[in-house]
């Protein structure tokens, strides 16, 4: 098969569409003929050499895909999947390829309301939001079900698409992106280039939960934005990994800071996340309450250009790579 190799750490030009050995579905895995994958910031970091794949994962980038089941590995015969099923999947790597082997617990059906290619935009973002805003961010912590979320909860996201049903504030760096967030249901939109988002969010009553991709550079402002008993969930370090932490503010407001990643979790943990997504998020996708937001689709062999678009932040929504 062909896959997108990273020949050495560096810029987009180090991505090479190359012939490589075919993957084999091992015990507990299914083999998927890939129709599409999607570009994530983690792929860019891997290409630069600062975010290597976890042990045992494919060396090729790509944390999600859609496609067709090509083969069942040992122990998956009673999984409910059959050769020819259309699926999408959460991956630890390997999505930029013609085929990928996936743990069976990380496979999802393609929702009837979504096309096969579009479905590649769903697994990573759905898994990230479910594992962080529900499994970590919901009142009561780790295993609180969706039903226990309070209607008054306020969520600030930098800059993640809002989830229907909650009062959501988002930050973004252009009016075009803020308009897109408002169209998706965000009630409070903040241009971080011109506004102090912490001051604005406090004026709106503060946030119960903040989902943050920036890290160090936003730490103090995020803590200032939180209400009493609020939670900051850091899932990215685009603004650096170091910052001074005001423990006095944390103690006075009973705040908590959580750092999480999705890619490095063991298969059992990812399977639990995917089960939650299938049970609770997929019905919303079928109703049209949640839908993939796609900026553009490009041939997979043009992944270098897709990475350039990602790094320019000129996109709004997912960048898909198609076969």
- Taking all Cα atoms into account, the compactness measure Rg is 20 Å
The low-pLDDT segments are 142-154, 159-164
Query: Which CATH class of the largest domain applies here?
Result: Alpha Beta
Residue share in helix: 25-40%
CATH topology of the largest domain: Quinone Oxidoreductase, Chain A, domain 1
**Helical stretch tally:** 8
Distance between the first and last residues' Cα: 12 Å
Q: What is the name of the CATH architecture of the largest domain?
A: Alpha-Beta Complex
Largest sheet: 7 strands, mixed
Structural class: alpha/beta
Give the rounded overall mean pLDDT. 90
Look at the structure and name the CATH superfamily of the largest domain. Answer: Medium-chain alcohol dehydrogenases, catalytic domain
Strand content: 25-35%
The domain tally reads 2
List keywords for this structure.
six-stranded parallel beta sheet, 2 domains, 323 residues, Rossmann fold, alpha/beta, 15 strands, Quinone Oxidoreductase, Chain A, domain 1, seven-stranded mixed beta sheet
């Amino acid at each position: 098969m062909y896959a997108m190799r990273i020949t050495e750490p560096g810029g987009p030009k180090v991505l090479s569409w190359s012939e490589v050995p075919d993957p084999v579905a091992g015990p507990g895995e299914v083999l998927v003929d890939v129709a599409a994958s999607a570009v994530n910031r983690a792929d860019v970091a891997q290409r630069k050499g600062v975010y290597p794949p976890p042990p045992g994962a494919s060396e090729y980038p790509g944390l999600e895909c859609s496609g067709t089941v090509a083969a069942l590995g040992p122990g998956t015969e009673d999984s409910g999947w059959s050769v020819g099923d259309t699926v999408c999947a959460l991956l630890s790597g390997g999505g930029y390829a013609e085929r990928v082997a996936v743990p069976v617990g990380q496979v999802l059906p393609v929702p009837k309301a979504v096309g096969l290619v579009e479905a590649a935009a769903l697994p990573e973002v759905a898994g990230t939001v479910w594992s962080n805003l529900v499994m970590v961010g919901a009142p009561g912590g780790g295993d609180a079900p969706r039903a226990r979320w309070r209607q008054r909860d306020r969520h600030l996201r930098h800059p993640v698409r809002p989830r229907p049903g909650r009062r959501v504030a988002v930050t973004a760096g252009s009016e075009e992106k803020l308009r897109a967030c408002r169209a998706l249901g965000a009630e409070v939109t903040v241009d971080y280039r011109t506004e102090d988002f912490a001051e604005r969010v406090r004026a709106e009553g503060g946030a119960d939960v903040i989902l943050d991709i920036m890290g160090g550079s936003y730490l103090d402002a995020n803590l200032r934005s939180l209400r009493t008993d609020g939670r900051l969930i850091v899932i990215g370090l685009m603004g650096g990994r170091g910052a001074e932490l005001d423990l006095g503010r944390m103690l006075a407001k009973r705040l908590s800071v959580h750092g999480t990643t999705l890619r490095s979790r063991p298969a059992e943990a990812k399977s639990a996340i995917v089960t939650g997504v299938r049970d609770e998020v997929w019905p919303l996708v079928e109703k049209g309450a949640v839908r993939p937001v796609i900026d553009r689709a490009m041939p997979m062999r043009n992944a270098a250009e897709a990475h350039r678009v990602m790094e320019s932040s000129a996109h709004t929504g997912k960048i898909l790579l198609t076969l």
